[in-house]
Design brief:
Elements: E1 2-5, H1 8-22, H2 28-39, H3 42-47, E2 48-55, E3 58-72, E4 75-87, H4 96-110, E5 115-120, H5 125-128, E6 133-136, E7 138-144, E8 164-168, H6 174-187, E9 190-192, H7 196-212, E10 221-225, E11 230-237, E12 240-248, H8 252-264, E13 269-273, E14 287-294, E15 299-304, H9 307-317
Parallel strand pairs: 4-5, 12-13
Antiparallel strand pairs: 1-2, 2-3, 3-4, 3-9, 5-15, 6-15, 7-13, 7-14, 8-10, 10-11, 11-12
Length: 330
């Protein structure tokens, strides 16, 4: 058996069969279109491939293979990211999933990757046997009180209203978001490096889904405080708010503004990846209840390959809450 870059026919074979589980509400035409267009974006041309497992030229399955860079303290590690791991139905329960993962691990060793990451929607035990370890698996939950005067904007926080941007997430948002993220990433203990093409790749996917999905796929919205170099990315769906990311040296005004909007719109439930829960330690008076809870999707796992990353693993595993962001979900 061997691992190869997918031909168009092989890619289409996987897409056709995987549609029923990963369509995200898209028609089959839009599902094919999204996956093809993602491969043709600038960031994808050098950092994203679709690989297939072959036996005697017969396709058995495949996966998305990304190249990412993770900064931890003063080091940058070259990582492979795996997504959409899929074995064709007629070849399941024959050990080919394990073969596919083992082939990818061998490829990464040959190409000097420091490690491999994935966001598992399966129980992590399957990946544990290859050496992957869980680093992040929790959501932060925040149940709000519905009383308008429960929350007051901190009057000591000064902001120039001309520097305050509230809008849907679009390609033009990159000019504000990218430099803020890069500066914050230098101060945070850990983060995925993002250039403007990476932002464009992520934004294109989110906007495509919100435009064409036949289920209610919420638009990603932004609050940006240019003067204080901070932003929040979030989604609202009925009475639920999901915060995708908070970045900034002083995001307090944005948090106050967002919480006020929640009260005004009768939003009761707030969720986010665990990394952003740290910003809400001073908001307990607004909550009926707040707590961390395990996710059954998007479980962040890492397989360290290089000696340097293996030596850093103990420090990584002790980062609580773990600072991986939802926008970096593969």
């Amino acid at each position: 058996m061997s691992l190869a870059l997918a031909s168009q026919l092989q890619f289409n074979t996987i897409l056709n069969e995987s549609y029923e589980i990963w369509h995200s509400g898209l028609s089959i035409r839009h599902y094919f279109s999204l996956n093809q267009r993602l491969l043709n974006l600038n960031w994808a041309k050098t950092n994203y491939q679709f690989l297939v497992l072959l036996h005697k030229n017969q396709i058995l399955g495949g996966l998305k293979f990304y190249q990412l860079h993770l900064r931890y303290n003063n080091f940058v590690y070259k990582l492979a990211g795996l997504g959409a791991i899929y074995i064709l139905k007629k070849y399941r329960n024959l050990g080919y999933s394990s073969e596919l993962i083992n082939q990818v691990i061998q490829l990464c060793r040959k190409q000097n990757y420091d490690g491999i990451i994935l966001f598992s929607d399966l129980k992590p035990e399957f990946y544990n046997k290859f050496g992957f370890e869980v680093l992040a698996y929790q959501d932060f939950n925040f149940f709000l009180k519905l009383v308008n005067n429960d929350w007051e904007i901190n009057s000591s926080i000064q902001i120039n209203e001309n520097s305050y941007i509230a809008a849907d997430l679009k390609q033009k948002s990159i000019a504000w978001l990218s430099p803020i993220y890069n500066e914050c990433n230098k101060l945070n203990p850990l983060g995925i490096l993002r250039n403007e093409n990476y932002w464009s790749f992520k934004i294109f996917k989110e906007n495509y889904l919100s435009r064409f999905s036949q289920i209610k796929w919420p638009k990603v919205q932004t609050l940006i405080d240019v003067d204080n170099e901070a932003y929040i990315l979030y989604e609202i769906n009925n009475s639920n708010l999901r915060i995708l990311e908070i970045q900034g040296k002083n995001p307090d005004y944005l948090l106050n503004s967002l919480m006020n909007n929640c009260v005004q719109q009768s939003i009761t439930d707030l969720k986010m990846f665990e990394a952003n829960g740290q910003y809400f330690t001073n908001l307990q008076n607004l909550a009926k209840k707040s707590f961390y809870s395990p996710r059954n999707w998007g479980i962040f796992m890492l397989l360290a390959l290089s000696p340097d990353l293996k030596n850093s693993f103990t420090g990584l595993s002790q980062l609580l809450p773990f600072p991986i962001q939802e926008l970096d979900y593969l």
